[in-house]
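Exam review. A common question shows you a sequence with its structure tokens and asks you to describe the fold in words. Practice with the pair below. Do the first one on your own.
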Amino acid sequence: MPLPLSAPSAPRGLDALWPLCVDLTERRRRGATASAAGLPLAWSANGGYALDGEWDAESRALFALFKPLLDRQGDDARWVVGQLGQSLDGCIATHNGDSFFVNGPEGLVHVHRLRALCDAVIVGAGTACLDNPQLTTRRVAGPNPTRVVIDPNLRVPAGARVFTDGQAPTLLVCDPEHARRAAARVGADRVIAVTRSPALQGQIPLGEVVAALHGRGLDLLFVEGGGVTVSQFVRQGCLDRLHLLVAPVMIGAGHPGLQVRRADAMREALRPPARTFALGTDLLWDLDLRASPA
């Protein structure tokens, strides 16, 4: 009598993939050598990680999106990824600052996933003042990153949640003339004093901020916002990758989103290699800025 055929096993899904992504991140932070031993993955020095076995379509798409981050190992782990959500007409908020919410709930989950996969999350003073964010990973499983607030003139109130909630360390980047007041707020060991540059129209040289964070062992950096801060990272050439999330909504005369250098001719425009991913009704553009023609 023939034996009954066993039912085929169901493909793995997000409930298996996300813990795997977090595990790879923790291994990188510990300085472990990249390896797929004991994991449903393959690893090669040239191709990085690849899923092994049966996975559903949603998991494969998510892994493809995060693979450039997960592949960062050893000396290549020092990397900066940015994310910005905006409308079809390039706004991040209405003219009076209402931004809740431009993008859908899937975009919020994506931001929390990026926080979990990176060592530090960076915001500018405008975002910290307007949104009073926590910058934690409360929507997903995973560790909270170190929080970094770029606030040259100490505009952000001392009672902001990033300074008072104790959920993760917070570093404060400011002009040296305000370093003493900043130290009284967060402690001298958590102040990064960077002099503003006349060559950058008085902006802080973000390359120095990135170098200071790398010097503290924070390798994979996530620039979360807002539009001014992300745009400055792009303009100063300090962003390796950008996730630009576009929502099917038109705001009209709102706060502008991504602002890059002006091109006088189309041949001068930035044309980075791009991939697209659907996040609910939003469309995420994954832009490789390091491979973009000058």
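Now try the second one, then compare your answer with the model answer below.
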Amino acid sequence: MYGLTRSEVGLLRRLSTPDKVQRYLDALTYNVEKDGDTVRSPRRVIRDRTAHCAEGAFLAAAAFRLSGRPPLLVDLEADNDDDHVLAVYRDRGLWGSVATSKFSGLRFRGPVYRTVRELVMSYFEDYFNWDGDRTLRAYSRPLSLARFDRINWMTAEDDLWPVVEWLTVAHHTPLLPRTVASRLPRVDRRSYRAGVLGAPKH
């Protein structure tokens, strides 16, 4: 099954709902490696028990695939901040997402959003950098990891840089005009403290 071992298949099949996938990701150590950054496959995430946002999204997409959902990602593009990757899903025509992040507000969303844009906008207030600037600016359409089956994205030992490069160059739809973005207020102190609660040191 996609080159996975029996134990890997068993684990991913146990992650049979988006909330179970999110709980699994929340139990991992957040990957804060700086030198020699990694882009682990789901196999390596399972083995190493660590993931940053892209690695967590790949793991979630693999679990979705084994439960019969398409392995879809949405890339969120930021200004003066890291981009963020979501594994997205639909239930009864409504969108939700699973994600891992240093910031507490950039993780799970239940399937209550009529469009991908609605889903993405639910991240706007919680998407800020260490200086407290609101930084979310654009998003991609849902993109299927199935196109990378040729490099065995679910089990590869090599870093998945081709996937990251693909997410980077994909068309992104702007969320707000530049004139509005330049006048956004910083996040208030209380929201900032809530957002970075439990965050690893950067």
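Model answer, second protein: The radius of gyration is 16 Å. The domain at 6-195 is CATH 3.10.620 (C8orf32 fold). Full marks require stating both points clearly.
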